[in-house]
Amino acid sequence: MIYHIENNDLAGALILIIFAIHLEPMKYYKPLSSFTTKARRIRIEKILLILMSLVLTVGACKDDDECPPNQLLGRLSLEAISVEFLPFNNFRFLEFVDSLATDTAVLYDPVTLIRDSSWTIVENICEKDESRADQYYLSEHLTINYYDLDTARKFRIIGNISIQEDVAAKTSTATDPVLFDELKLTVHRSNPSISGAVASLSFMASSRNNDARLSTALKLKQDSFALVPMVIINDSVYTDVYEYKNRDSAIFYFKPSVGVVAFRALDNKWWNLHRKY
Q: Which of 9, 29, 32, 111 has a Cα-to-Cα distance from 264 of 20 to 30 A?
């Protein structure tokens, strides 16, 4: 008699073997007395049952070590006001001019503005040694990466906008999270291997109508970025620009619809945005 076993199910195979022993004992035992044959069959069945129990136990432990699948809660788009902070769609070159108007820095991004998706995680539902599961939103995400064509000077501007949860907000829950659009800007003011050459910020580009629910920590962080009514840099006048400082020294200025308008290199020379093309 032939028994077909599917899916390499070892526990199922053991059950079939026991069943086969009952149906066809003469295949497995020599023609001894019926008592001896029966005793041997009982011992073999016990051994197989023990093996089956071990298989089931190991399988249960394996399942217990794994988290359930991640749970997608929905899709989110960035606010229009946030997108304005990275206005570089189809611009491959950013041209900056130094304070003496004698030198030009050309920064290049071969793919310009990248639009893709990222995870906005709002709840961790399981975490084990080698497994994790989260509840998340699939959110719109923007990225730029302009680097200096002068490989010795190594200026660079990196930016991205994503949707984040204000995890410190008291009323934020998995079903009703306090979300905001976050702008991250990094400016390499010289070779990044030099101390102090890299300046980075995290800025709330939009509260997504959650102003009343934002945490105190996020509000204080946002207040550290002053909106300057007017500033003059290298004879260029800028209005309504955000200022990023480090130890009370201005490092760079940025604004919606323009991006980074000016930055101070590590040698304290200011560079102004001349054009995008």
A: 111
